[in-house]
């Protein structure tokens, strides 16, 4: 049985159960109703992983050893993210779709049973916890070829509505503390499924980078009474030299201290905490700038750039007035035949070295003819 | 003119000036004296880079745009780390060597002029600084083929003496706050020179991972009166299951919350702050365990494993009683044809997901027949 819900921008969501009990959500713009049943045999769900504390850094590491057996390279004729055609039964039972979100088949993080809390962090004697959270897959189009940048503006609007919906719903789960929708693109960052898609990780703890951003923003608020990100944005708007694109509601810039050869932050001009707080006007203005930025990125070298594109948001239950929504795109590609590798300094010390000035990469991005 | 100095373990150091004013240091065990002159034309030294503050994380990023033009792939017949033979003039003027250390030709960090201090960190309005510090290259052998694991124990002892010497000397420089000797191995981590060598980065600030480790260790000391690393080590020795190798002075283990498919920490049983504090007995016992660990690592899949091997030390000027020396080896290789990629969760959120249990990888490493 399908469960239907009306969202904004004319988008309808249809939820259906998959054969193994997972949920698939169709996001449609034409009032479609969805009812195709998952014809695959029932499959046992994998177990839940473990949270272990790295005591030297006081950070959780997820041990997801149960994922090891997962399928990495399906046969070419069977992309699990394509819609089902005839007897080729995929993750999406219907024969077509606009945007779908389904629970990951081999999730690193899973919904815990009953009440859940992370163990107290007390150094090397800290108990292991269960790896609570949610991992979802989001498919941008049923067209196997292409990429985010090839989507129509209208499709990006549906995609954004799906992201917003997921953030709204996942924020209601009491065990979820932070939500990160992201897209990995390119074999250089380990992507084995080329079908345009992203992932949504909903953590039961604050990931270390979020924890650090929060602590820095809190200190800045205490000392200046201002929101750090707002001042960062003001400086980028004032400096101008690193701005890549801008419209009435959004600005895209290479940050002053970028860590990657190509790094772009896309932020609303009127700051919000997360995707769920975007106004309809902001949401409607996102497709244009996001497509422009992605086309500029691929245009720099005329090749498909490997990238990681991540929504940074305020955590679900704290720091709502301290951290701001922005979309961060980073690429390790520094020239057609060259990648930036995170080796000794970056990986072991956390000290980033950049060979390309942000002003220079911003200029290269602006110079792309669209 | 060569400047000679006697170190421990019968090692003699000869310092010579290179044509462009850089210093090369030969570390020898047979009382050699070194005098070969650098015959290459004088070359202008590249400029110094910039330190920019990433205000969202309050971390310095080094902008080393002057390095962009550096040579990445020298012609095959001319490895710049091989000794000079006839007319092929390399970075090492002599026709043979045991271990040499020379200043990096395209350093990310350079010795600053005059007195130096990092700018105050005050959010987005923080001034840029100059990228003060030192970058050195350390060659493990004049034999172009082979790898760390193929060195003789006696050569590893000379190499260790060279590392100790560099830490001693660099610690005297008032602008240096942290020293990290590391080795990147394998094309998978971006290494373009296969000649066995490492690098020494001496930072004028605390790299972010060191800063975090220091804060965590300080809190643990405040709360328990104990040194965090010592308790971590005690737990590993008690648990036993993750120990890979051990001798009278050192232990090698896969940490309880390892972040990489293969990760090994090698630590002295009697803790010290840094390489310079190792006792002669500890130093003499290092070659055996380091070679065993590296041979086990390559033995797991019977291939040359890509790795990053880094000496973690206490900072030069603070936390000397809080952080401990250990040698961390991490590999992204999780199976012969498979790498672990740091994508959305690890790279953008700092949240590590591990598919392999540390107890399992420790078992695989122990099972290797040497």
From TrEMBL, chains A, B:
Region named Disordered: 28-49
Residue numbers annotated as active site: 197
EC number: 2.7.7.12
This protein's pathway: Carbohydrate metabolism; galactose metabolism
Start and end residues of each Galactose-1-phosphate uridyl transferase N-terminal domain: 51-207
Residues of the Galactose-1-phosphate uridyl transferase C-terminal domain: 218-367
Catalysed reaction equations from the record: alpha-D-galactose 1-phosphate + UDP-alpha-D-glucose = alpha-D-glucose 1-phosphate + UDP-alpha-D-galactose
Cofactor: Zn(2+)
Pfam families noted in UniProt: GalP_UDP_tr_C (PF02744), GalP_UDP_transf (PF01087)
Biological processes annotated in GO: galactose catabolic process via UDP-galactose, Leloir pathway
GO terms, molecular function: UDP-glucose:hexose-1-phosphate uridylyltransferase activity; zinc ion binding
Family, similarity comment: Belongs to the galactose-1-phosphate uridylyltransferase type 1 family.
Name used for this protein in its record: Galactose-1-phosphate uridylyltransferase
Native source organism of the sequence: Candidatus Planktophila lacus
């Amino acid at each position: 049985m399908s469960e239907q819900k009306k969202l904004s921008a004319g988008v309808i969501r249809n939820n259906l159960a998959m054969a193994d009990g997972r949920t698939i959500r169709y996001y449609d713009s034409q009032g479609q109703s969805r009812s195709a049943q998952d014809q695959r045999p029932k499959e046992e769900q994998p177990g839940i992983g473990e949270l272990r504390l790295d005591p030297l850094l006081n950070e959780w590491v997820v041990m997801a050893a149960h994922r090891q057996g997962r399928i990495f390279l399906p046969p070419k004729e069977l992309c699990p993210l394509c819609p089902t055609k005839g007897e080729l039964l995929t993750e999406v039972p219907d024969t077509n779709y606009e945007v779908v979100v389904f629970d990951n088949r081999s999730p690193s993080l899973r919904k815990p049973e009953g009440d859940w809390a992370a163990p107290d962090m007390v150094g090397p004697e800290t108990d292991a916890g269960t790896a609570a959270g949610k991992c979802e897959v989001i498919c941008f189009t049923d067209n196997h070829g292409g990429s985010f940048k090839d989507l129509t503006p209208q499709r990006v609007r549906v995609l954004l509505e799906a992201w917003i919906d997921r953030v709204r719903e996942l924020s209601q789960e009491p065990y979820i503390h932070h939500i990160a929708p992201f897209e990995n693109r390119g074999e250089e960052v380990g992507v084995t499924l080329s079908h345009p898609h992203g992932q949504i990780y909903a953590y039961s703890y604050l990931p270390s980078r979020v924890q650090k951003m929060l602590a820095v923003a809190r200190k800045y608020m205490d000392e200046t009474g201002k929101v750090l990100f707002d001042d960062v944005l003001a400086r980028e708007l004032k400096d101008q030299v690193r701005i890549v694109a801008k419209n009435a509601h959004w600005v895209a810039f290479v940050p002053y201290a970028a860590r990657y050869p190509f790094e772009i932050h896309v932020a609303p001009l009127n700051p919000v905490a997360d995707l769920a707080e975007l106004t309809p006007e902001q949401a409607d203005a996102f497709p244009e700038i996001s497509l422009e930025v992605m086309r500029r990125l691929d245009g720099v070298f005329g090749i498909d750039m490997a990238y990681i594109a991540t929504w940074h948001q305020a955590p679900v239950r704290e720091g709502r007035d301290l951290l701001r929504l922005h979309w961060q795109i980073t690429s390790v590609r520094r020239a057609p035949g060259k990648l930036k590798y995170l080796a000794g300094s970056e990986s072991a010390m956390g000290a980033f070295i950049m060979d390309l000035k942000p002003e220079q990469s911003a200029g290269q991005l602006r110079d792309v003819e669209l």
